[in-house]
Amino acid sequence: MEIRYRIATETDIPSLAGLRALTRGTVEGWAPYIAGYMEGINNPQKALAPRAVYAAMDDEKVVGWIAGHLTKRLGCDGELQWIDVAPEYRRKGIASELVKLLAGWFAGQNASKICVDPGNDDSRKFYAANGAENLNQHWMYWEDITILVE
Ligand SMILES: CC(C)(COP(=O)(O)OP(=O)(O)OC[C@H]1O[C@@H](n2cnc3c(N)ncnc32)[C@H](O)[C@@H]1OP(=O)(O)O)[C@@H](O)C(=O)NCCC(=O)NCCS
Fold first, then answer.
1. Global pTM?
2. pLDDT digit string (tens) for 63-74?
3. Rounded to a whole number, what is the largest CA-CA distance in the chain?
4. Are 124 and 140 within 8 A, CB to CB?
5. Distance 126 CA to ligand 1 centre (A)
6. CA 34, CA 41: separation in Å to the nearest integer?
């Protein structure tokens, strides 16, 4: 299986919302919210305008995605907003590749200190495995995410 990575577009939104809805909420709820995020209309707390969204593809199927933006939140330069991989594609390194891609985008924006709200214990382990540390009781962060860029 060869996974390809590319910038996500508007036509991916139903797939991205479908992946998000596996964890929380509904496709109908997420689709307009993600669309608004991509367009810069929906802004997470203290978000700045620059943002990036990437998709992981198995042939024509979206099997994972990541989104992040520049921010003024928590003293960070950027925030990893969402990351999801389809259950049958997990533990194959796909999310780690997506983090590297986003890290490359952050590097291009001169953003190095990146925060993430892990949301659950599994993702906390995933972020720790990718070099993130605890920022406080809840949030995690990379002091310099650009070291992940190969
Ligand atoms: C968290 C998530 C994105 C990880 O995706 P993934 O593609 O399976 O991650 P990777 O294969 O790159 O994992 C890299 C390493 O992270 C750690 N890791 C990943 N998932 C883990 C889990 N469920 N439990 C413990 N460690 C985990 C492991 O060290 C793993 O390496 P290994 O497989 O060699 O042991 C995926 O489980 C997911 O989509 N979860 C639901 C959505 C979610 O919680 N998103 C984050 C909050 S927005």
1. 0.98
2. 999 999 999 999
3. 40
4. yes
5. 5
6. 10
